Amino acid sequence: MLVVLALATLVPTAIVGVLAILRARHDVEDEVQRGALAHIRALGAALDDTLQDARRTVELAAASWADAPGDTRETQLLLRRLRRDVPIVKSLSIVDPDGKLLYGDAVPTGIDIGSHSFGGYIGDAVFENGRPTVRLVVQARGRTGELMGVVIAALDLGFVRDAIAAARLGPGARVLVVDGTGVPVATSDAAPLEPRSLADRDPAVDRALESSVEGTLTEHGIVSAYRNLSSYQSLRGVRWAIVHEQPEAQAYALARRTTRDTAIVGCAALALVLALGAFFATRLTRPLADLARRADAIAAGQTSEGPPIRGPGEIGTLAHSVDEMAKRIAERAELQAALARGDRLASVGVMSAQVAHEINNPLTTVLGYAKLLQEDKPEGHPDRAALALIADEAERMKKIIGGLLEYARAPRASEPALTASAGTAEPAAVVRHVAALVAPQLRKAKAELATDVEARAPLAIEAHALQQVLVNLVQNAAQAGATKIAIAVAPAPGNVATRIVVRDDGPGIPAADRARVFDPFFTTKAPGAGTGLGLAVCKHLVTTAGGSIEVADGPGGRGAEFRVTLPNAA
Amino acid sequence: MPGYSAHVRWLAATLLIAACAGEPAAPPPIRFLHTFDAKETELFNATMAERRLAVESKLVPFARGQQVIAEMLRAGKHCPDAIRIDATWLPELVAAHVLAPPPRELVALDWTPEAAALAQVGGTWWAVPETVDGLVVARDAGMPAPASPSIADLVAAAKARGELAHPLAVRVDGYWLVPWLRAEGVELAPGDAIASQGAVRALASFAALFGGLVPAPPAAGSEAPEELRRWNDGEVAYWVTGPWQLGALRDRERVAVSALAHAPRGGQLLVVPTCAARPEAGWRLAGELTSVTVELVFADAFATVPTRRAAFDSAAPLVRAEYDALASAEPLPRSPVTPLLFDDLNPALAAVVAGDATAEEAAAGVARGWHRLEKR
Question: A398 near A360, Cβ under 8 Å?
Fold first, then answer.
């Protein structure tokens, strides 16, 4: 069951956990890509702003010049101001509408002066003296919109490299700006720029040039974010792209660390939950296992009480119920045994009474004639001894028969208590009387009797019945060889009964015999020394009065101790 | 069982050869240079991926398209297999002898007459037409159409919408001036016609719309989004525009389109340069992009006008209306200098609209500029 519980807990938790971890990792990776995109977006905007600022300034200057194109002094002043105010301007020229140089620096041949470019453009990157440069071409149109000339400026793209170098990049990351043909314009790498197109060599560059906007790409272990800075609508769109590249291992380091840590913490939490679950499940199932064993034992007929089974909640209740059930089964079995034994004893009693009744009269005759014949014989006659023996044995037989009659006369447990419960007994008086009765016998056996009567409440038993019980117990002790015998009478717990304890320092009763000592005709005395009816009679008298009698070892395991509990008289 | 063993050996040998041979090498991607905008690029990439056509495309901004393409083809370096160009750029490329004619099977397709005309120069096919465009008059479907396509009736209809401050939308752009010039009998061509009284009247009447029926022009570069905003906000009753903008409208079903007299008609073409490494691949891409399926995909997305007759069977009503409205439009002169004319015309028109120059001054300046073009 534990395995099933563990699986039922582990499998869904593990699945949900793994899915959550994967989702979280995916989200973090998305964030990384978004972050890279945001970075190049901001970087691209900053770079574009710089170029567009230069373009706007040159456009204003061109428009201003176009209104007075023949003023050489003003034109020279304008060009000086432009060079000063636009620091990325490397060279500056003004050509006429046919491309002939009017003012400023020499212009390389083949420069398009802006035909069908909506008034001007920023060209692709070229490398001049190893430095990336773009050509800004602005048509200078006068007040009426007529073309008066064209301003051509070479813009040094070193600022792009400086801006990229100043950007805070992640470990292993680099930023790359390429022109419309894929030639790198600037890179965050320290390596010198190679004026060779990266198209067909760098997938991110290819994708950037293909795209009209931006995107991300993970290929060959490199995470790339790209943005095409070209624009369809803007008439001044710069045909270049910006790319952010970072090795996957470093780009997703945080995602992977988070995944690993989450997995470790998750596994630890799962293990803890499992351990706690196992602990509580064991605690939960152990009483159930004990209960199962107890049920098996009960089924096998072993109803003796074991240690109590404890468990939480319903299991505790169930355990208690099983214990109760076992106890009741045991009681029922005992009751059935007692009933069977009681029937047997009752049969024995009835038979004994009949036999005793039939034997008693002839025996009285035998005894009487034996005594008469003995008296008829003179002293010293050889028959006198034999006749005396006959009389003694007949006398003993009468005693046995008397005992049987006494046992048979006692009412059965199932009958109404008439005799014993009809009267009451004063414990102190009874004990005194018993002490007087047994005194000669005790002297002969060199035994002492001590009495201690604390309870004074009258007992619900006939006085002579209690007397017979106590005499039997004291005589048994003396006959067993005890030298110190004590009778103690004290209130039983609850004050509704009285406990009378008769203890001695004799050899005691072996544990194996204790269950049978109250059975009729059971005796441990030498053959002919006892009838085996004394304790049986005692038990009948006591139980008939509603009390109980039990035997145990004496104090310190020495001797025997009979405990008689009798209800107090109402 | 010798027969069984022989079969097993044959099978094993076949499997071994197949395993060693591996998959056939994938063909290199088609190199494509285009002028699509951002959304068009996304749809193009997705469509090509869906049709399992490997294309390595590169974007060239429309504003520099003619310049960059011409330079590239003249240099013969990094030559693409196919190029998407504006129809006005075709004559210059044909004159420069840098284009390859399309294969016969493409020419023989069911092109609309307008599209077929765009793809030809001097009666010879040099391109495959991808889409047709031009100027039309758009209005809300609940609005009455102008009485006729004439400019006068358009202006009258706009004036009737007195509840709107500026009920008409036109752009300060030489392309939009073309109907006004043609209404005065002036065609967009080098020569002295641009300095004629008719051209001056056209300039003046067009400029006179601003501040009245048309609001003052927005900052340069923001014309398109501003026009869209005004339309979506209900500030415009009649909008002179092209299919390229109608596709972006929020409620395309409520747009009605009618013709504008003398409107220019143009379009986009697919060409294959003579320097292409794989011209057959370039024409294959052109065939894919002009297949009825793809044309309808783009028409649904952007309200572009297809070039194949079959595409109109299932085209949206707006697209059919655009086609009908453009039927009466007239192409710009098929001359290499035509696209260059706008370099001078646009700033001159802006100067007149802004009040910096009179129509006469501006027209004279344009004439001088166009004369320079003639001398080249």
Answer: yes
